[in-house]
Amino acid sequence: MIRVKRGRQISFDTSSWKIPYGTMMLLCMIFFLILYSFAYTSGINYEKVIANLQAGVSGETKSLKEIEAAQKISDIFGKDKMASGAVKVDAKKIRISLPSPVLFDSGSSQIKRESFSALNKIAQALKEMDNKVIVEGHTDDVPFKKLPGGNFELSTLRAFEVIKYFIDIAKIPPGRFSAYGFGPYKPVASNETDEGRQKNRRIEISILRE
After folding, report:
1. Mind listing the pLDDT tens digit for each residue in 68-118?
2. What string of H, E and C letters represents the secondary structure of 67-85?
3. CA-to-CA separations, 60 to 32, 69, 70, 188, in angstroms, rounded
4. What distances in angstroms separate CA 86 from CA 4, 94, 124, one per listed residue?
């Protein structure tokens, strides 16, 4: 492209933007490769790495507390044989998923004594923050006839029992908790197999991120 200014011709190189643009894209690629390698080698979830970086840049100490709590809960599952569960972190919540057999006997809504140590450790992590907590109960689709409300009622009772434990035993303020029972209506796997049904029988504890 050529422009004329006060009788003179001024030439512009229309491709000059490509160099800084290419440099910027290269830096972005290197940045995300570093993130990926850090997450892979340290065993930390990718979302946790992102959240740590965001917290460091913005100075949000609350986010760091949330991530530290998530890491502590993750450590429970690595050390406590009764706490075979999973922790997932995203922008909205820290979700702890516990298979129902870890907490309850089949068809029961009474928490097993063997699971107290795991719940106590989760409670200690919850005490380090003031975030809202949602506890959800889930079942498979095999009909449960011992209660009038079937699977839906059983899942709700189990969610309430977990909250009662946090309130009565761990002494966490009740205003932080909400309970939901979904029965078989929010499966995470197919109910056509034993393995799928086992995955669907679970308690989910979600710490809402602020």
Report:
1. 777 777 776 665 544 556 888 888 888 999 988 889 998 999 999 998 988
2. HHHHHHHHHHHHHCCCCCC
3. 22, 15, 16, 33
4. 67, 10, 17
pLDDT tens readout for residues 12-42: 556 666 666 667 777 777 766 666 665 555 4
Residues 6+ apart with CB under 8 A from 206: 93, 94, 95, 96, 133, 134, 135, 136
**CA distance linking residue 110 with residue 47, whole number of Å:** 34
Q: Where are the domains of the chain?
A: 1-43, 61-208
Was domain 61-208 assigned CATH 3.40.1180.10? no
Phi and psi at 162, nearest 5°, equal -65, -45
